[in-house]
Known about the structure:
- By secondary structure, this protein is an alpha+beta fold.
- Helix content is 51%, strand content 19%.
Amino acid sequence: MKQTFDITGMTCAACSARVEKATRSVEGVQDVAVNLLKNSMEVSYTDETPAARQRVDDAVCAAVSHAGYGAEVRGGGSAVAGSSSNGTSSRSAGRATPQQRAEAERKQMRMRLIVSFAFTIPLFYLSMGHMFGWPTPSFFSGAENVLPFALTEFLLLLPVIFVNFKFFKVGFISLAHGAPNMDSLIALGSTASTLYGVYALYRMGYALGAGQVEAAHAFAMDLYFESAAMILTLITLGKYFEARAKGKTTDAVTSLMDLSPKTAVLRASGEEREIPIEDVRVGDELVVRTGASVPVDGVVVEGSAAVDESAITGESVPVEKGVGDRVIGATVSRSGWMVLRAEHVGEDTALAGIIRMVDEATSTKAPIEKIADKVSGVFVPVVIAIALVAFCVWFAMGAGLETALARAISVLVISCPCALGLATPTAIMVGTGRGARSGILVKSAEVLQMAHDVKTVVLDKTGTITQGHPGVISFTCAEGADERELVASAAAVERYSEHPLAKALVDYASNRGLAIPEAREFSQVEGGGVSAVVGSSRYMVGNARLMESGGIALGGLVLAGERVADEGATPLFVAKDGAVAGMVAVADAVKPTSAQAVKALSAMGITTVMMTGDNEKTALAVQKTCPVDRVIAGVLPADKEREVARLVEEGSGAVAMVGDGINDAPALARADVGIAIGAGTDIAMDAADMVLMRSDLLDVARAVQLSRATMRIIKQNLFWALIYNAACIPVAAGALAWAGVTLNPMIAAAAMSLSSVCVVSNALRLRRWKPTEYSANHEAEVDGALGRCQDDGCSKDDEKENLMEKTLHVEGMMCPRCVAHVKKALEEVPGVERVDVDLDAKRAVVTLSEDVADEVLVEAVVKEDYEASMEA
Length: 872
């Protein structure tokens, strides 16, 4: 169990590193994860007893307060909150939700920005206007007016310092605690500029008193008041844009929270009344009309409706709900009327669980984030040291105080630990939120990273690849039998059986609109089937063993039964008055998208393995429909975990296990990434690392794609943040001054602000992420071609000739533009109908309408300056 703290006063990665270090030093703390983006901290304890937790809660808050920040236990005031570094009690701050505090901070930042620009613009005009030939008032022009000129600049600077005083307060407090942060860099740079300007003011006054007008004018041209103001204003501008962008990273979670209905219509004692959602209790009967949201999770007890579940599952097609069907809270009734009985309310609803899961995932840290944490821990002290060295070196070289100071200030304000701190959490936040809106729930940042490396996916058969419940796929009648009468009579016999195959036959008759008659003298033969009297005839329904024991000859239906068995279905024979009358083929049908999902995974370079407890013949029959790479049949439930462990130990990349049943839970937990199908059991979902709300196997491929897209953004962000600082700090220090390249402090401040905004904006691109539907159109074309082949009587060999695919391994692709180049080059080759290119797998799958030589395909890619080879 973990405790969540709300943290105040953090501004950069150095802050989060300081808070984490302070918390880890507390006795009783086992692990810590600080989230700069959410201003929160997750702490796990070595002792879970209430007394020990309370003691550690208080100690953590005290340690964080001593480090210069504020901390409070989220959702309670039991912990002793420290004072935040902005002067407000974290306890009082904790009364508002994190979203409310973020919005209040954004509004305050906007006010600061307006005031800053209101005074910085005239200050910049006054100080720099003469350089651009801009007109200035006469009382500010000329050597005799230098003192009013300088004093006016100073007075314009003071309001900018006042509204942005938080930078100085937080920065110097952190510096005093021996843990300087980004605010410390800004405060040092602005303070140095301001103090130099004040120094120049005194020198001007001294020069004017001595009658040295020219000297006073020279000092007036070297004032740094405009630099101090511009540094503060540009940093505030960047912070404002950053706050707006960071707010968008939580849009998915916020929109999920907004889905929760505020009221419900309660039906009690024959009357209906509207009540707050908080007053709904388990067992209440709630009325849902067209256009209304389903208030809580429950079961329909009356009426029917078409329910839009897209907000929860991502499925856009409304689902018909009738008596006995389960409905999910926050879904919307598009048509119809129904009454549901509440089963899960408050924090127990599916929506609350999704929000909680996403929130927990965004509070964790991905392993790759440790890189940024290590750098951030020493970043600011190193930057301060570089600034001091730059000042001393330039001053010692005789460049003058002004030049040396400019170099030091530029180093201070261009350095950006913020970009490092935001690189990973922003991408994780947006990625998990985007996944939630697509029906893909990720439980932790570590899992999101691990899914990026998945090379093997193990698929449970029943309920994962297949529908999970048997259904009638064909009904064959003996010569002279009436099919409708036979189906109805067989269903009448099976209605008293609890066997899944019996239910499939009863459902088949009901779906055909047949009236099922009454049966009597029902009897059941274990392992064989059932028999009963319907009307004046005795019927028997069961396997060949039952027919044989009753002395019933199957005749020509024997071969039909064997053919059905070879195709993976179960044959049930129907006998009437001692003679065979028909045969029913019952099978657990493969889901419509399973084959496409397996091909999508293969196109991504992932090996698929089907694991089932069924016999090998049935498993191989399913493999014909759903072309997995390997089949492991006859696996007992207890052995699934062992088989997954064996695959993990083989070490060929991360292994994902996809399942839905109770017996899948150990295997889900043992896999590197456990993925539970949403329609599965609660135990399987609890054991899994990911949950697919739609029970669609295609979402497995989408989940891996989401992970790869997120990791790509994280790597881009870390690369930008590290390269930006590595390149800009030496330039700011004057390393390229010999080539005439220097950085003004104002330009340095603008660059620093831009770097953070760029990192967050790059992460926001994930909001537009959409999965690549591998061969979706191709699958439809193939199905159509197969249908035409069957109609025309063409052979399987002809079908294969029309479906030719070749795979190339491509090296050198770095970005989506490279993918476009490779795809275009291959599409221009005669005979190529379709090209699917996977950047992460470095693979191109080419669909051909005619045979094309391997050399031709390879040469087409090589001409685009990429390396290519054919895969077996």
